Amino acid sequence: MGFFLETLFGGLMAGMLYSLIALGFVLIYKASGVFNFAQGAMVLFAALAMARFAEWGPKYLGFSNHLLAIALAFLGAMAVMVVVAWLIERLVLGKLVNQEGITLLMATLGISYFMDGFGQTLFGSDIYKIDIGMPKDPIFVLESLFPGGVLINKEDLYAALIAAVLVAALSVFFQKTSTGRALRAVADDHQAAQSIGIPLRRIWVIVWSVAGFAALVAGMIWGSKLGVQFSLSQVALKALPVVILGGLTSVPGAILGGLIIGVGEKLSEVYIGPMLGGGIEIWFAYVLALLVLLVRPQGLFGEKIIDRV
Predict the structure, then answer these.
(1) What is the 3-state secondary structure (H, E, C) of the chain?
(2) What's the confidence (pLDDT) of residue 146?
(3) What is the pLDDT averaged over residues 24-48?
(4) Which of 45, 160, 209, 236 is exposed most, by the fewest CB atoms within 10 A?
(5) How far apart are CA 155 and CA 135, in angstroms?
(6) What digits encode the pLDDT tens for the residues 140-196?
(7) 102 in a domain, yes or no?
(8) Given pLDDT bands bounded at 50, 70 and 90, which one contains residue 79?
(9) Angle CA 155–160–163, to nearest 5
């Protein structure tokens, strides 16, 4: 039982990180109707910016306090992502208002490849480490219930808690604030939202900035765990089946979808993987998403689309 709980907790903690990235997809889709293939590139670009700023601060500004360097690097990277959001709206989305969905999709693909290449040009292609001070020592919990207790990695636990707090904050922002309601209005009908005075272009900058903030936090956490490298954008794309499973228009779906996939891939790898030769964790999420699409194309929590003739 103890080993099962270790695997379950590990899946839940990984699932929270998937949910955090998936929220970026959902927020942008709800506000603009765009399936943002650039979200993975945004995670990588934000992580690269923070890693390099954390190096440059002590080197060029002369201070030695590590926490101060990390804090300033985070703020600098967030400023970069706001500028990126403004440029995306000004140079791309603002020119494609009311265009076909495939046009917007191809635009985000172009943004993704550009950010990958420009990030390498601007920040370099080495592997960087972001040390945000999270302890890496394992701890034992529930020792009174199970012999030897349940082993949990402190870094994974803190990362999951950070992701959970941010996911909750973004959910409240989207559901309860006036800006969040404006985002939902824009998602329902661009022209109707503009007709009642909602500034479409400003809303798009806000939502891409929020998605950039989510990407920065996800990149910071994954960079602390795995190092900042160009494979990080591929890790971020694991959120794609999370979005498909939960539903493109559902914030709760992104959260629950991430937890389902995180737990499912860990348990399947541990208990089914040895019988099939391993590797289940690589494809489990995508197969699960495909099965859900066959039964419920809008996802488990997405809104059913009804076309009236």
Answers:
(1) CHHHHHHHHHHHHHHHHHHHHHHHHHHHHHHHCCCCCCHHHHHHHHHHHHHHHHHHHHHHHCCCCHHHHHHHHHHHHHHHHHHHHHHHHHHCHHHCCCCCHHHHHHHHHHHHHHHHHHHHHHHCCCCECCCCCCCCCEEEECCCCCCCCEEEEHHHHHHHHHHHHHHHHHHHHHHHCHHHHHHHHHHHCHHHHHHCCCCHHHHHHHHHHHHHHHHHHHHHHHHHHHCECCCHHHHHCCHHHHHHHHCCCCHHHHHHHHHHHHHHHHHHHHHCHHHHCCCHHHHHHHHHHHHHHHHCCCCCCCCCCCCCC
(2) 65
(3) 82
(4) 209
(5) 6
(6) 776 677 676 677 777 778 888 887 888 788 778 777 777 777 776 776 666 666 677
(7) yes
(8) very high
(9) 125
Residue 80: its pLDDT value, please? 92
Say if residue 1's pLDDT is above 70: no
Report the domain count for the chain: 1
Domain extent, residue 218, equals: 2-238+246-252
Pick from 170, 159, 164: nearest CA to 25: 170
* Rg over CA atoms, the chain: 20
Kindly state whether residue 169 falls inside one of the protein's structural domains. yes
Q: Is residue 266 part of a domain?
A: no
Tell me phi and psi for residue 140, to 5 degrees: -110, 130
pLDDT, tens digit, 9 for 90 and up, residues 284-303: 888 888 898 888 888 877 66
Distance CA 239, CA 259 (A): 11
User: How long is the chain?
Assistant: 309
The CA dihedral of 19, 25, 90, 44, to the nearest 10 degrees, is: 50
**Residue with token string 């002369």:** 62
Is pTM beyond 0.90? Reply is no
Determine the pLDDT at residue 309.
46
Query: Is 279 within the bounds of a domain?
Result: no
